[in-house]
Design a protein that fits this description.
Distance between the termini: 26 Å
CATH class: Mainly Alpha
Number of helices: 8
Order of helices and strands: HHHHHEEHHH
CATH topology: Hypothetical protein af1432
Radius of gyration: 16 Å
CATH architecture: Orthogonal Bundle
Strand content: under 5%
Number of domains: 1
Largest sheet: 2 strands, antiparallel
Strand order of the largest sheet: 1-2
Structural class: mainly alpha
């Protein structure tokens, strides 16, 4: 049986409390913004509403990967943990860019990763998100280890690994999905399709 394609709101209900309500509040307070901004400046989900579509897409991919991998070998984290990390991994993006002459530019206040991370932390604190060290590692390394990579030890934990796999799939394999109409994944559609 094929995996259903869940709406973002449905997947937020799969996140355990106390973070479920906080995540729903983030979405409710910023729904129009999330449905307006692009997913990135150039590489994936570059249409209006692409941010919302990327978050929804990456969480759906994560459910498929989690269920399959967890059926082979038990994973040391829950689906709730994975969905929380992926919902929050790009939370700064809706506030990160200025649209000038049809192109996205980083705002002065978010020129580098440290500034972006500081904004993310502030936003999570504002909504009372409660993160474990595993969640923090997962969010930090969803986009890979980058300069933190070490051949002397693992930097990315297991949760971050599966979050990274899901994000790479969305941003590099299915960077232009869901389709505007007639997506082959039953139920998948763009927020502005």
């Amino acid at each position: 049986m094929p995996n259903p394609y869940y709406a973002l709101e449905q997947m937020l209900k799969m996140i355990d409390e106390p973070n479920r309500t906080a995540c729903q509040n983030i979405l409710n307070d910023n729904l129009e913004l999330f449905k307006t901004v692009q997913g990135s400046a150039h590489n994936h989900h570059t249409w209006l509403g692409g941010y919302y579509d990327h978050v929804q897409e990456v969480m759906n991919i994560a459910i498929v990967l989690y269920e399959r991998l967890n059926s082979l070998r038990p994973l040391p984290f829950s689906l709730s943990d994975l969905l929380l990390v992926l919902y929050l991994h790009d939370i700064e993006k809706p506030w990160r860019y200025d649209l000038i002459d049809g192109k996205l530019y980083n705002k002065e206040s978010m020129q580098d990763r440290e500034m972006q991370n500081n904004f993310r932390i502030q936003k999570l604190q504002e909504y009372g998100i409660q993160l474990t060290p595993e969640h923090e590692n997962g969010i930090k390394y969803t986009e890979g280890e980058g300069k933190d990579y070490s051949m002397n030890g693992r930097v990315m934990n297991e949760l971050a690994c599966l979050a990274h796999m899901s994000d790479v799939c969305s941003a590099r394999l299915w960077f232009d999905y869901p389709e505007e109409t007639n997506d082959t994944w039953d139920g998948a559609k763009r927020v502005k399709g």
